[in-house]
Amino acid sequence: MKEKDSVLRSLQSLKAAIRAFIAAGENVIGDIEDLENCLHEINAEKVVPKEQREEEDSKLLNKRQIGKYLQCSQRQIDYLREQGLPFICLGGRIRFDLDRVKQWVKNREVQNKKVDD
Fold this sequence. Notes:
This protein is mainly α. It has one domain. The chain contains five helices and three strands; from the N terminus they run ααβααββα. A three-stranded antiparallel beta sheet has the order 1-3-2.
């Protein structure tokens, strides 16, 4: 019986370790995707010059903040970025200019069509 309990505890520990490893891997994948997006932005010459960045800092939001503003999840923000949601890469971090995001959302407005929530 003691052996069985010991094996059970070991399996539970292993299960927890696997879950932690998977979660860490997902974070690494997200970081890699952010880096890829930053490189894409650099190649597309969309990185904001330092002088302009300092002027606009008060309007820049992170992914959590823009998700809260748009009332959607961070995963949905990633999807919207793939669909063209404008963002800026600053020092390896993704930021969103609130004015540009508002304009982007406004341009996607659907008129005279019924859309389910």
